[in-house]
Specification:
mainly beta; seven-stranded mixed beta sheet; three-stranded antiparallel beta sheet; 1 helix; 12 strands
């Protein structure tokens, strides 16, 4: 993970991976300003398509299995191994509870040159609406690397180490806080050759009772592949909601819980209509079987690194990505890719090297 060994003294300000990003310049918030602090060559998170991958999240690295690399030593709770913030109140999670969770996401881009990646290159492929549980699921089609997103699907409490996939992670807290951390990843066992569609900017379109909107406006939704939220920074924002209406990885922005199975070029029938408040045409998902990219409740996979897309701390609960990381298209499943993790309500620090929750990759069996 980029910045894994950054301390509070490395920069002129506290720029540890667990420090929130607010009103920063692009250079400061992009990859958390850690591009000059890359992971070691061997620190790669391996994502086996069709299997589960679990990581740790915590408020302090000392509360994880990587405590030896933390100046404060081992602070894990002997009475509760799932406690991500030993000795800290739930406010450290930046939420009042599961009901107040606003979602987390994983996004991916198939580009092994981190310096050339742009914000619009990332595609959200898995979302966990109650990210405190750290459970992620990805589309059954071709997601090779973890990206934004999560799925509610708990898995065995196994801890995984970073292997080969470049990931970036980003959390959006309800209280104007944001995170973005990069990771290297390698997805194995993917067979799909379907490319990711070009990701678009998400739109607020779901029911929003808190804001006096009882009904969703499906025609105003961004359907298909979507970019992560880039919000509340000094520059390069793509979301311009105010502090009282922050973007969430929820149905409110058409980020359904779990694998984002509609992010591929063949996910929909025909051309997607232009979204808008008066749009009445709702796109039709293609029926792809078995295990295709068509959006279904059981479809989960890792997007494959295909040429079609240049896309793009919480409780220490072990979470697993449910069945599925969409599998990416080939250029070589041994390439390194980048992933970003975003969330709207996460604790200040994450628990594992790639400081994010667990994700699961499920076998993609397309055509």
């Amino acid at each position: 993970m980029w910045g894994f060994n950054v301390t509070a003294q490395t920069f002129s300000y506290d720029n540890r991976p667990v420090s929130p990003l607010i009103n920063y310049t692009f250079e400061q918030w992009w990859f958390h300003g850690h591009l000059d602090y890359p992971p070691n060559d061997g620190d790669i998170f391996e994502l086996p398509a069709g299997q589960n991958a679990i990581a740790e999240l915590a408020c302090d690295k000392g509360a994880t299995d990587f405590f030896a690399t933390d100046g404060g030593g081992d602070i894990r709770d002997p009475n509760d191994e799932q406690n991500p913030c030993p000795g800290s109140p739930i406010s450290e999670f930046h939420t009042t509870g599961i009901e107040d969770s606003k979602g987390c996401a994983l996004a991916i881009t198939y580009n092994d040159n981190v310096t050339s990646i742009q914000p619009e290159d990332f595609t959200v492929f898995s979302v966990n609406q109650t990210c405190r549980k750290g459970c992620h699921r990805v589309p059954l089609e071709d997601v090779l690397v973890l990206g934004f997103g999560s799925t509610l699907l708990t898995v065995a409490q196994n801890k995984v180490r970073l292997t080969r996939c470049k990931k970036a992670k980003r959390h959006l807290i309800q209280t104007l806080t944001d995170y973005m951390n990069g990771f290297k990843c390698n997805v194995t066992g993917s067979t799909s050759e379907v490319a990711l569609a070009q990701p678009q900017i998400p739109r607020r379109c779901g029911a929003d009772p808190d804001d006096g909107k009882a009904d969703a406006v499906p025609g105003n939704c961004t359907h298909g592949a979507k970019q992560p939220f880039y919000w509340f920074q000094a520059e390069e924002n793509t979301m311009f909601e105010d502090a009282f209406h922050p973007p969430f990885y929820l149905d409110l922005y058409n980020f359904l819980d779990g694998a984002q199975n509609d992010i591929f070029v063949d996910s929909y029938v025909g051309t997607l209509p232009t979204p808008g408040p008066n749009q009445t045409v709702i796109p039709q998902l293609a029926q792809i079987s078995p295990g295709g990219s068509g959006n279904s409740s059981t479809s989960t996979s890792v997007p494959s690194p295909t040429t079609g897309t240049p896309a793009s701390a919480a409780p220490s609960t072990t979470s697993s990505a449910g069945p599925g990381i969409p599998t990416p298209v080939t250029p070589s499943n041994q390439q390194q890719w980048y992933v970003v993790a975003l969330s709207r309500v996460l604790p200040p620090l994450m628990r594992m090297i790639f400081q994010w929750f667990e994700h699961a990759v499920t076998q993609q069996t397309k055509r």
